[in-house]
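[Automated response] Your request has been received and processed.

Submitted sequence:
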Amino acid sequence: MQKDIVAYFENTIIPLIAKDFPQVASEMSIMVTGSFGFGLGDESSDLDANIYLDDPLWKSQGGQVQLLLEHSPDSFARTVGHPEICVHPLSWLLDEHRKLFLEGRRDLPWEQVSIEDLFELQENLVLRDPHGVFGRLRERTAPERLPDWLWQKRLMEEWQKLVFADLGELVSSVKRQRALQAQIIFGCVMEDLLHVGFLLNRKYYPWRKHLRWAFEKLPVLASSALPHLDAVDSLRDWDGKLASVEAVRDIYADYMRDKGILSPEVLDDLEWAIRLEAWSNPRWRDRILALQQKAVAAGDKPGDRWVWSLWGWN
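Generated structure:
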């Protein structure tokens, strides 16, 4: 199927554009996205691809090219109302931060680019890259270039979401026998578990549709976690589902402790670690101790520190 996609562009789309828009044909970069972009397309998949042009060329000719593609009889698995091939300006790449990454600046806006978009940039099929834009962006956004503090931050936030938010709500919904509510939250928990697995590997993850496929390729933890994750499909009772979820949670927790990925202090006081930005503040616990001392000096309990923090009492 991948060969069919390449042939479709080389034999149909590129000649079609070249006939009326030769400059566009010579300058355009092409990326295939979605299932076909990952080599997973089948007869039921829609073909989604993006043609990227330098902004001035996109502004002057991009609209006409888009109309040409819309009205072309040579369609490939067209979905009504959804163009299979979109014409975009290069400036839209990386949430409009492409230029900053290409310039190689130190203060790059990593937090403003989603992990899913970074995954797609790294993994989607590139058919044409005449100016090496995709090649350079891939090199400058490789996972090993993402700052350590940001990996830590995202892992802390995702772990908190899993353990203290979604999983707690799931257990509560199951106990209350609220089936629909439990099913909805269960989907969130499964997504959380997959996301944490990627973050522990320091790998980008795709949008939810392709999470299971990409997770299987992870070098660490996938082999031990997947049997539990896949087992939930065959389990009909909630006790079994929760046991599988908690097994993966425990695998991750043991791995983090064994490898020192998150310190025991962070794992034991995660909410405050996030609140005090422990990923960039190694003395974050000093603030907790100061708040506890103020609470005790006022005749309150150490656990009342959160009141002192929230109201900003000195």
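Summary generated for your ticket: The beta strands are 29-33, 48-53, 85-89, 125-128. The chain has 17 helices and four strands.
If you did not submit this request, please reply to this message.
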